[in-house]
Design brief:
Blueprint lengths: L1 E8 L6 H8 L3 E5 L2 E7 L10 H14 L1
C-alpha cells in the first residue's frame, strides 16, 4: 500500500530520480501528463497492552536491577 506524497506535471521534471530524492519517496509513477510520488506504508501488527500487563513488565524490570 502506498500514500501519494505529490502529483507533479511531467513538463516540470528533468529526472524522476530527483523527485525520489527530494521527497524521500519509494516510487514514482507516470500517468499521462503527471508524475505521482509515492511512499510505501508499512503494515505492522500490534498487540494492545492492558494495565495489568504494565505491572508485570515493571516487576520484571525491578528483578533485573
Amino acid at each position: 500500500m502506498y500514500i501519494i506524497l505529490a502529483k507533479i506535471s511531467v513538463s516540470s521534471v528533468d529526472k524522476t530520480a530527483n523527485l525520489k530524492k527530494k521527497y524521500k519517496a519509494d516510487l514514482v509513477l507516470k500517468n499521462k501528463n503527471s508524475f505521482y510520488v509515492l511512499e510505501e506504508i508499512i503494515d505492522a501488527e500490534f498487540e494492545e497492552i492492558n494495565e495489568g500487563d504494565n505491572e508485570e513488565i515493571n516487576e520484571g524490570d525491578k528483578n533485573n536491577e
